Each structure stands twice: as C-alpha cells, then as structure tokens.
Amino acid sequence: MINPPRKILLATDLSSRSDRAQDRAVTLMKQYSCELIVLHVIEPAKEAGFHRRVRFSSSYKQNEKLIEKTKWQLLDYLRDTGGKVSVRIENGKPSDVILQIAREEGCDLITTGVARNEILGRCVLGKTVDKLIRSSEIPLLIVTGRVRSPYWNIVIASDFSDISKSALETAAAYFPDKKIAVLNAHSAPGSYAIDDPESYRDQIRQMIFRDYKTFIDSADIADKLRESIGILIEWGSLPQLIKELVYNSSVELVVIGSRDRGLMRNVFRQSNTMRVVNDLPCDALVVRGKV
What we know:
Elements: E1 7-11, H1 19-32, E2 35-42, H2 45-48, H3 58-79, E3 84-91, H4 94-105, E4 109-112, E5 116-117, E6 123-124, H5 127-135, E7 140-142, E8 153-157, H6 162-174, E9 179-186, H7 197-218, H8 223-228, E10 230-235, H9 238-247, E11 253-258, H10 273-278, E12 283-288
Parallel strand pairs: 1-2, 1-4, 2-3, 4-7, 8-9, 8-11, 9-10, 11-12
Antiparallel strand pairs: 5-6, 7-12
Helix pairs in contact: 4-5
C-alpha cells in the first residue's frame, strides 16, 4: 500500500509565479509532518538567454550575491512554518536537475508551479513542467490555484486501467479523509443512428459501472475509503468534462495517471498530454502508472 509523502521537493524559479506552489508545499508539509526540500536550478548561460557571462565581472558577483540572499530569505520564511526545511541551489537544466535531486533525496512528491498566468485564468506550464510530466517516476503536483486550505474535494480522471489504478491508490494514500470521486468519460458509438439514444447511453453507463466495481474492488485501498468514493460516469470529452466539473463545483485537485506515451491509454495521445493538463482550471497531481 502507498504511504503519504515523507519528503517533498518544491521546485521553484524564485519568481512570484512560484509563490502558490510554495504555499501549497508548506501546507502539505504541515499536513504530513514531513520534510520539505526547496530547490532552485540556475540554467546555463546559453539557456538562460545570456550571450556571455564573465566570472570576475561585477554582474557575476551581483548574481551570486542575489542568489545567496534569496536562499537565506527563503530559509527565513520557511523556518517560520515550524517544519524541517532545507534549500538547495544547483546548476544545470532544470528538468534534469529536479529529477536527479528528487531521486537522490528519496522524495515522494515533486511540487511546482506554472510558467506564467494569462488573462481569463489560463495557465501556461512551460517546458520544464512538460518534461517532468513525461519523465518523472515520482508523483508531480502542479499548482495553479491560490492556497486557502488543505485539499478537500478531489476528482480522479480514470479509464479503469492499471495506470488509473495507480492514480487512485496514490490519491487514497495522500488524502484518505477527503472527498474523492472517480470521473469516467465515455463515448456511445453509433448512438446517432439509434431511435432512443438516451436509453442506449444508459445501457452503456450501466456496463461502465460494472467495470468500475471491478476496478474499485481490485484497488489497494482501505475498505472504508473504497465505500466512500463517488463515481461520475459521463458521456463526452474528458478534458471538457473536467473543466465543466471544476468550474461548476468546488473541485480543487484533479488526479491523472500517466505513462511514457501520454496520459491514460485509450483516452489521450502523447500529443495531447500537455494540452490536457495545461487546460485544467485547478491543481493537477500527475501519477506515473504501471506500464
């Protein structure tokens, strides 16, 4: 059975965009009474957009002083949280360094923010988060929303595969006392040619519910939680259904299973991975499933 996080890695670019991820990481640290590692990665000069960086120039020394100052500011802020916090500043390609440090430190969860926020609430993840989604063996929490309280209302996008089962088991371990529901989006092939399409879709929904019962019964979760999990079986596009559900309810976190070739077999293609998570109007927890 999966355990709650014992060590969380917060990947931050030290900008205001990372404040929400930082606040969420601190909230989770308190919730789990676990260790928090704050990581900032300095990109090589070429990738950071500089044509030249001279080691002994005044600008270089100012950069180093700024980094050191920021490190201590972070420590001062995070020490007030009352948890066990450490700060690491490393050089390299951010996605590679984040994954390396997470493995070295034995982290159970990586938390990060988005590249930028656009008007009307649309978030842009960025190339680092994209790489983490595709490559991280460790659950990845992508924070976009303001932190007002611990997560309470959680939805798991599921196609009842083993990959989705990993997502369910992780959510059950991380949030055993929260409201959890499983959302399954399905199609109704040929319903346009049926005299009574609604009745036909109801039959399909009943078949899917039987699949759900087999799925939930085989999951490695506590019996009490198994009985409390809700099920939402809806006809339509999963990305659109998730957006509608979040906008029309109080869902704060969507949990999605992933693998090398994208999110959830038979639901998303690899080319849609970034788009699906990018379009979520709330936080997302991406869990690597069993391939």
